[in-house]
What does this fold into?
Amino acid sequence: MSEKEFQFLVLNTKADWQKCKPDNLQISDEGLRLKTGYQLVFDQQIFSQQSFSNLKTADLAVDDFGQLYLLDTKQQRIWLFDTVQNNLQLVASLAGLLDFPTKIAFSNSTIYVVNEYPVTENTIQSCIYAFSRFNWQIRWVVELPEGMKVIDLAADTKDGTLYALLDRGGQVVAKYAPSGQRIETTRFARGNIIKPTAIALENDTVYVLDCLKDYEKVVRFDANSHSTWINFRSLREQGLVPEEIEPSGLAIDSQGSVYVGDKRSLPQGEEEDRFIFRCSPSEETVEPVFAYRGAVSKMIYNRTDKLFIFNSENKVVSVLRRQQQFLRQQQELPSGSFKTVFDSTIPNQQWHKLILEREIPHNTQIKVYYSITDNQWQPEAYFAPLINPEDALILGDEEIPRPQGRYLHLKVELIGTEYETPLLKSIRVDFPRLSYLRYLPAIYQEDENSRDFLERFLSLFETFFGNLEGQIDHIVRYFDADVVNGEFLPWLSTWLAIAVDDNWTKEQLRNLMKKAPQLYQLRGTREGIAATVELFTGDRPLIYEYFQVEDNSTNNQTAEILQQLRKKYFNDNELFRFWVLLSPFQIDNEIELQSIQRLIDADKPAHTEASIKVLQPWIALDNESYLGFNSCIFEPSLSLDMGFTISHENVLNDSEEFGQIERRSRLGLDTKLN
It folds into this structure.
């Protein structure tokens, strides 16, 4: 059966895929795959009150490196918890200065703390302290009007601007400059915010969580306006959040997604079903974050793309990290789909088969639903899906055994896992229906049931022989290094007497095969060896032979240097040795060095011996510095790690800019008045 007997339609280009308007699928040069995105996954539980039972943690702040500042109201202390070393360290004892510290916020140079103390029996006075993060000296103190309380704090970690969430007054948020001066603005008018409980920042945008029962919402304050960003009453009606949810905690990630937790009480023994809910920046989706279950008292999203969750109920801090994954559709496995229509232009056409070029990793699927009709816009009910088809006949079912129609409607669904996706490279549809049955006597086609069975049975042979004939027709592709499949590359390389190294990439092998004729002409020469090394490393090496250091100089000093080089590289008289010198960054590891050694050994003249040396990146007398090759000047860098080193010309300095008593206090020289 020849391909010339068939007509076919195909989808295999970006333009083709874009016309299908794929849902949750990503279009690339290779084809269609599941769209990737970022999800929060559990990272670690970094702090447990059980480990530090003496602490009564009222609030916490997180720095840019993930270290926790814990505010202990019982002892009026601030502790620093190193999440890497799992070490708790006292950094500030505020007993005698503060009565009842309640809130804490972090910026690069300042730690802000809210203190409350009684003025009368029924009146509380609140004030905000700004402490230098480097020596814990007080920078400024701001007292709020009598009876006004600070509900929550948030600070811009870069410039130190402070935002205080207030329980009363015309402004729901008070904004303070790093110097302590209040920035007057009408931007944060309280409006219908009755019970504010949390505040979060994203650049210059401020979000406030209002927890008035049955009217919970998140309000967003932009530069010139404010709006209700999340309305929990509406979400309850849509069934997107539980009816009993008590919103608590507020955080914004680097993409603008809003996270809100749940602090409702659960009866003892009931299954944990309290989640964090994520609202996308476009407000189109609200979905639970399955990486965490439990009550939420406070959430902080820091610059390392980690979400820190404080659960005051269990006295623990959990961390979720942002990780690239294939996007889920609600609570299902990651999946995506598209629909398309093929037009044969012939009414009552009987379609032959589908051919898919695809890659299907373990635990992934491609489902193809199809319907055949003479109506372009109205497909009939789809037949049972084809699972992972590669070369499949288009058949009907018991009700419609031989469907016919001008249009073939396809719905293709790709199903993956969080870390794997199927790849659909092309879809080809062949028509009209032809089979080997037509070569048999007519008696085999008289009975409809046996005819259908024979047609399906013979399709096995048709597929095998059809594919074989197709490969023979296009056999030239197996002899082209640019297009041959990776599994045939080593086979094709044997035609050129290339001994394949397992460490070579497919691209390196393709390049070697394409340039093999020129390299064979240069084989055994200095130029050939240099070209081969350049092909695999990207840079040309230096090659030194004995004749280059022979003593032909009349200058005694030069003669002495040449003698030292002969002794170092050639033991004075190794006439047939040569050296290949590689630049400092030409290879990455010992395996690559061994591969290059094998390449050189295969190309060098039989009577010679080759040695390889990787040069160091320096300019130093008597230390093999080759101008323009390894004589590179690099900026000194400080590297702190296990077995850390401090390189040349590094200066450790205090980053504190402002005046400190008994420390760098020379006015006009190293102290700024602010």
